[in-house]
Design goal:
139 residues, 69% helix
Length: 139
């Protein structure tokens, strides 16, 4: 906020909003927590506030997520819930590649190569989304 704080009430509202955002960031740290155990009640408890205080500052859970992370909230679907397990299975298949790749028909071999590329992209994305080592040590 760049606007000048004109009174104590505005300052208190700004501090409450920041407390809510800090609590939400903490509650939503784990992957998948937005849709599983990251409820408004959990955030209110972490912030030491009521759920009403949260809704006085944010229109919805999705609005709070957008304020905290500056991106749309994650989509809950069977595919997103299965993503972690799918990645594990895909990684296991890729690790077997040297043993079986020579026995596969060309289209399936290409799928295997595509799977390796996808796993590498996921690893790169995970590395890019991690805070630098100094930030991790400070936390």
């Amino acid at each position: 906020m760049t606007a000048k704080i004109t009174n104590k009430r505005s300052l208190a509202k700004m501090r409450t909003r920041q407390r809510v955002m800090d609590a939400a960031r903490t509650v939503w740290t784990a992957p998948g927590s937005f849709n599983s155990n990251g409820t408004i009640r959990d955030i209110a408890k972490k912030a030491g506030l009521s759920t009403g205080a949260i809704f006085a500052n944010f229109d919805s859970k999705e609005d709070l997520w957008l304020a905290v992370f500056e991106c749309p909230a994650p989509i809950d679907s069977a595919l997103t819930r299965a993503a972690h397990e799918m990645r594990r299975v895909l990684q296991n298949l890729i690790e077997q590649r040297p043993e079986v790749i020579g026995t596969l028909p060309a289209p399936i071999a290409q799928d295997w190569i595509d799977a390796e590329r996808i796993i590498e992209q996921l690893k790169d994305h995970e590395l890019a989304s991690q805070p630098p080592a100094q930030e991790q040590l400070a936390a």
